Hints:
The protein is an alpha/beta fold.
Amino acid sequence: MPSEVSWFSALCDDDYEFLGSPDPELHSSWEHCRNIVLTADRYGFDNVLLPSGYALGIDNVAFAAGIAPMLATSRLLLAVRCGELVAPQMARQLATIDQMLQGRLTINIISSDIPGQQLESEPRYRRSTEIMFVLRELLNGNGVDFQGDFVNLQIDPPRIRTVSGRSPLFYFGGLSPAARDCAAAGADVFLMWPDRTERVLEVKQDMDQRAAAKGRKLRYGWRSHVIVRETETEARAAASRLLSKLDDVTGQEIRQRSLDSASAGVARQAELREGSDDDGYVERHLWTGVGRARSGAGAAIVGDPDQVAAKIRELEASGIEAFILSGYPHQAECDLFARHVLPQLDHGPLMFEPDPVVV
C-alpha cells in the first residue's frame, strides 16, 4: 500500500527563517497559511495538518472552512482538542467541513490541558476516550445514549452527516501509559514523533499489543520536520543556518509556551537531543536541532533527495504508513521536498474502515 505523505500549515505562529527570530512576514495569518496549504495541494500532497493553539495563531476550524473550497485534491487533518467543545457541537462542525471538502476530512485528536483547567494524565485521556466514542457515533450518524465519567449525553441521530455517512479517521499521538491506552481504544492512526528506528519498532510493538487486547488494529504515522537540498553538505548547512540566531534562553521560552511542554513525548524529544552528537545528530540523517526552539516534534530528516527518500522508505519498512512533514520556512521547504523527494515516493491518502472506539 502507498504511504500517505502530508504537509503542515503553520497556524500557530510556528514559521521561521531563523528559529527563535520572529519574522512578521511569517506570522500566521489567513494569507500566509493559505499559501502554504495551496502550495501543498498544488504539488499533490495527500493531506495537510491544521494544528490547534490557544495563545498563538489563528483558529484552525475557521481556517479549514475558509480553505476547503479552494483545495483540489488534498485532505485536511484538522486538530481538535478534547474538552474544548461539547461533542455534538464538535461533530456538527466536522460534518459540515467534511461536506465542504467533498469527503476529504481527517481528524487529529488532541488531549492537552485546557487553559484554566488541568487534569492528571489518566483522567485527561479517559475524557478523550469518551469523547472519541461519542464523536465517532455521531459522525457515523448514530444517536447516543452514554453516561461516562466526563460525558453524559442522550441525543438523537444527527441530520448533518459527512459525505460518506461515516466518521473520518482519527489520528492521535502520545507516549505516556494513559495516552497509549487511549490510542489503543480509539485511534485509527497512531502518530509518533521522530526517534531512532529501533525505538519506533518498540513503541509499535507495544501499541499493537494494546490495540489487539481491545480487539482493534492501529496504523502508524510519523510527524517530523525535513531539510532537503541537492547535496548532504548543503542540507546540513541549511540546518546549521536555521539555528544561527538562536540562544538557549529564547529556545527554552519557546518550548515552555506549549500546553504539552511537560508531556512524555516532549521529554523523549529532549532525551534525543541530549544523546545527539555535537552537531545535534542522533543518527546520520536525523537532526534534533529543531527541538531547541520547539515543543513537540523536535527533529528533522536532513540530507540530499535520495537520502531523505531512503530514510522515509526505512520507516515504511518499519510499519509507518503516514508521514506528516514540515520545514522552515514552511512554504519554501514544501516546494523543495515536493520537487526533489515526493516524485520518488509511492504515496496516496490512507483509506480503510476503522475499528469501533472501545470505552
